[in-house]
Amino acid sequence: MTAVDERGMAHYLDMFEPPEGVKAELLRGVIVMMASPDLVHNLIVLHTQRQIPMDRWYPIQTQDVDIVGEESVPIPDLVVAAPDVLPASGHLLPSALVTAVVEVVSKSSVHQDYVVKRSIYAAGRIPAYLILDPIMAQCVLLTKPAGEGEDANYLSQEIIKFGDPIRLENLGIELDTSEFGTFPDVRPHRYP
């Protein structure tokens, strides 16, 4: 068996083949695996993606994001970037090219989405991080990233209930959340 240090984890993840239906991402040197998402999750991603005008933005699913200075390769539910800044090809999209990321909370991803990824995306200076939470029927819009490493955070936080519109200033759009579903019979959590 070969030992793999934190610097080699990203390379190891490139060679790793998770089982079918499982997503694996590197978050602060830890490989986190998630089962296939629930239909509620997928429909929220679909409703969100369809509201982003493709003449100005590309909402991309399952795109690995490279966070400079981090031992992390997150795979947001949606990455939003301007078409003219995207490279012709590639596995990793540098966070400097990303305008926004969207994560839909699942029953098992609450801590990662609200805490771990919040810090990772802020460290990558991604201007907007939108958390869509079908457990709490709320959206959390985070903007103004600041800080470094695990101390990075977003300085601005806005909480919007499902059903109310969200103004995404940096994309120049208003997101309709009235079609967002929720998970039935799931215990509430304490985040954000």
TrEMBL record:
Pfam family, one: Uma2
SUPFAM superfamilies in the record: Restriction endonuclease-like (SSF52980)
TM helices/strands, residue ranges: none
Start and end residues of each Putative restriction endonuclease domain: 12-170
Taxonomic lineage of the native organism: Bacteria, Bacillati, Actinomycetota, Actinomycetes, Kitasatosporales
Protein name: Putative restriction endonuclease domain-containing protein
Organism of derivation: Streptomyces curacoi
